[in-house]
Write a structure and sequence with these properties.
Layout lengths: L2 H14 L1 H27 L10 H29 L6 H8 L3 H22 L6 H14 L3 H6 L5 H11 L4 H8 L2 H15 L4 H29 L9
Helix pairs in contact: 1-11, 2-3, 2-11, 3-4, 3-5, 5-6, 5-8, 6-9, 9-11, 10-11
């Protein structure tokens, strides 16, 4: 299936199920974005000569990772259920999603380390950081389906990482093209966020949550690409 067809079908799914997606993800996004904004304010207000990172900041970071894992688990489980033509209540999806949080958390940590390693290593060699960045972007594309492997395929974190790397071999370019959608989204979202920053925390929170919700379309597109590329396909709606 062509990339344009995948994006079109993902858009249609996102549009047709936007109310269900919002009911499921927006409450979680409010918590996630709220923590991110608080950490951002703490960093901006820190003493650059003597920065302090206390227990509250560490707790906020851990909470952020847990909330993000819950968000991805709930979204992926919803997409899986709908791809099989089934219905499930928001409460049931959230309850079931809790089972995948530990696996997603571990998979996310190990995937993140693998993605960041090249750029961090090559940054020590000055101009060669660009090579490291290219490698990190490539690894990011190869590990883009780790979450689906954990939730849909029920694999362990390490199995999911290996499975995603193998799975993306023939679709690495298409995956990268989908992930590149984050660039315009980040640019537009960053500009809007900067404009409303002076309006106060509540307005900024609402705007940031809206931008983050729109960004979930990329996850929907990745899931569609994942479903049409699986060796054993099922009848899917996404």
């Amino acid at each position: 299936m062509s990339l344009s067809a995948i994006l079109t079908e993902a858009f249609n799914f996102f549009r047709n199920h936007i109310s269900q997606l919002a009911a499921l993800t927006v409450p979680i996004l409010f918590i996630q974005v709220g923590i991110q904004l608080w950490l951002g304010m703490e960093i901006r207000g820190a003493d650059l000569e003597n920065p302090e990172f206390g227990a509250s900041h560490m707790a906020a970071m851990m909470a952020l990772l847990l909330v993000f894992s819950l968000l991805i688990a709930a979204l992926t489980l919803f997409l899986e259920i709908r791809s099989q033509g089934h219905e499930a209540s928001t409460a049931l999806i959230l309850k079931t999603s809790l089972n995948f949080v530990p696996g997603l958390l571990l998979a996310g940590v190990f995937s993140g380390l693998a993605i960041l390693a090249p750029v961090m290593i090559f940054a020590a060699f000055g101009p060669l950081w660009l090579i490291g960045l290219t490698m990190s972007i490539y690894i990011f594309a190869r590990l883009a389906y780790v979450n689906f492997m954990v939730v849909v395929e029920r694999l362990t974190p390490f199995e999911a990482i290996k499975a995603s790397f193998k799975f993306t071999s023939p679709i690495a370019f298409k995956t990268l093209m989908v992930l590149m959608l984050y660039i315009p989204l980040s640019l537009v979202g960053g500009s809007i966020s900067a404009l409303v920053q002076s309006l106060g925390f509540p307005v900024q929170l609402i705007v940031e949550v809206f931008i983050a919700f729109i960004g979930l379309f990329i996850n929907v597109a990745l899931f569609r690409l994942y479903m049409v590329s699986r060796p054993k396909k099922v009848d899917e709606e996404v």
